[in-house]
Design a protein that fits this description.
Blueprint (H helix, E strand, L loop, with lengths): L1 E2 L3 E5 L5 E6 L15 E7 L6 E6 L3 E6 L4 E7 L10 E11 L3 E6 L3 E6 L4 E5 L14 E6 L6 E6 L3 E6 L4 E5 L14 E7 L4 E7 L2 E6 L4 E5 L14 E6 L8 E6 L3 E6 L4 E6 L13 E8 L5 E4 L3 E5 L5 E5 L17 E2 L4 E6 L3 E6 L4 E5 L14 E7 L3 E6 L3 E6 L4 E5 L16 E6 L6 E6 L5 E5 L4 E2 L1
Length: about 475
């Protein structure tokens, strides 16, 4: 899961990739109409189920496949897609970055990725030295970072980058006006400089602040602390690492840094946040403008992520909850700014989002749909739009939602479709036909294992002998 300024992306347990929020630069892909400019609830990116990780920047996104292929899309004005493209027009179609990678991290306008060989390459904006290639110029294709390595982890802030080497040493480079490099100075650096003399489990950069989890599980932060984001109770900045919470806590396991706030998780599942809370990104029951020390987020959590102005956490049941600024639909919870974590979705085992609505499968094999219903795409036999899930009869194994139609895989391994009947997308053998407000069986005459209804009006299914039908 990765949170940007006004958009977010996550990978489900089935390996599918989902994004939501602002889409004015194609950072969610599929920029086809004004309706695509903001997507307030998760929408699947492509049909692949082999995604390993995803990271998002201010208005761009990159995802890494299990095989190490890296794909990027969205804003490309400073070459941050790494594909050689530099332009003012959105790039909503994922394009592959040359190379094979193990990890990727996106800053505001630059990106860095660790190669499977242990090398590190960066691209995009480089005017503050954040690419680490000994220059202060921007690049539209990956450039190797000078010195250090092999690398185990990389993290990018707004205009700086940090990484952990194989020996546990920490290094930072790029913009340093607020001390985000942690080397005791405020000079921009175009090559890596060492942070402290100790060793680190992980580093996390965001805005002009950096935090590090040391080997002894104490947490340190440095850089901009004007809104309390160093967590040491002072409300001031530091050019060298300072202990969070005066160092009393020695069981931190994860840390994430937003634009001007920080959240971290402990071994018992508690999540604590501090710094700016103007948009309720600290997820506190009692709102306050800032918190100079860590404040507890109610609940027990298995994972966390921070965006520029919002925070999301995952509980032990794998339900996703978010709080903070909802601009562009970044929370995935609809409109409004919740003070405490609000659920992104209900108790569903899988979900499929189309252009005008959503369908989901629950734990009891029931399918429900909601959204626009002018062409019967809800599938409940009526022609009413639905703001809440409407159940469809029968038992189902999977469901897929297109732009104006949907299809489901029944428990007898037959495919049934409903909604817009033009162009033969319902698969009944009748070609174009009137809208079907209830599921109708396809005429394929096979037993199926999967089904996919696309936004362009095509439907495909893979049968139990692995033959594809479309």
């Amino acid at each position: 899961m990765s949170l940007g300024t006004d958009h977010s992306c996550g990978i489900r347990l089935d390996g599918s990739l989902w994004c939501w929020g602002r889409n004015d630069a194609g950072q969610l892909t599929a920029l086809d109409s004004d309706a695509d400019l903001e997507v307030p609830r998760p929408r699947q990116v492509g049909a692949a189920h082999d995604w390993a990780s995803v990271d998002v920047g201010e208005a761009s996104s990159c995802a890494l496949s299990m095989a190490g292929a890296l794909w990027c899309w969205g804003a490309s004005g400073e070459g941050q897609l790494g594909t050689g493209v530099v332009g003012t027009e959105p790039s909503p179609t994922p394009a592959q970055v040359t190379g094979v990678y193990a990890a990727v991290s996106l800053g505001e306008h630059h990106a860095c990725a660790i190669e499977v060989t242990g090398g590190l390459a960066c691209w995009g904006r480089g005017l503050e030295g954040q690419l680490g290639d000994a220059t202060m110029v921007s690049r539209s294709t990956p450039m190797p970072v000078q010195g250090g390595g092999p690398w185990l982890g990389v993290t990018t802030g707004a205009r700086h980058t940090c990484a952990v080497a194989a020996d546990g040493s920490g290094w930072c480079w790029g913009g340093d006006s607020a001390g985000a490099l942690g080397d005791g100075a405020t000079l921009d650096q175009a090559v890596p400089v060492r942070v402290g003399a100790g060793t680190w489990r992980a580093l996390a950069a965001g805005g002009a602040t950096t935090c590090g989890l040391a080997d002894d599980q104490r947490l340190w932060c440095w850089g901009d602390g004007s809104l309390g984001q160093l967590g040491d109770g002072t409300g001031g900045g530091s050019t060298v690492p300072v202990l969070v919470g005066q160092g009393a806590t020695t069981d931190w396991t994860d840390v994430a840094v937003g634009h001007q706030h920080v959240c971290a998780r402990r071994t018992d599942g508690e999540v604590w946040c501090w710094g700016d809370n103007e948009h309720a990104q600290l997820a506190q029951v009692t709102p306050r403008a800032t918190s100079l020390v860590p404040a507890l987020v109610e609940g027990t959590w298995a994972a966390l992520a921070t965006g520029a102005r919002h925070t999301c956490v995952i509980d032990g049941a794998r339900d996703l909850w978010c709080a903070g600024a909802a601009g562009g639909g970044a929370l995935g919870t609809g409109e409004g700014t919740p003070l405490t974590p609000s659920p992104v979705a209900g108790l569903w085992t899988s979900v499929s989002a189309g252009t005008r609505g959503t369908c989901a499968l629950d734990a009891s094999q029931g399918v429900a749909c909601w959204g626009v219903n002018t062409l019967g795409e809800i599938g409940d036999g009526l022609d009413l739009d639905r703001e809440a899930p409407a159940m469809i009869g029968g038992a189902w194994l999977a469901v897929s939602r297109g732009s104006t139609h949907a299809c489901g895989l029944r428990d007898d391994h037959q495919i049934a479709c409903w909604g817009d009947g033009t162009s033969g997308r319902l698969g009944t053998g009748s070609g174009s036909e009137p809208p079907r407000p209830s599921p109708v069986l396809t005429a394929a005459g096979a037993l199926f294992a999967t089904v996919a209804a696309s936004s362009n009006g095509t439907t495909c299914g893979l049968d139990t002998s692995t033959t594809a039908h479309c």
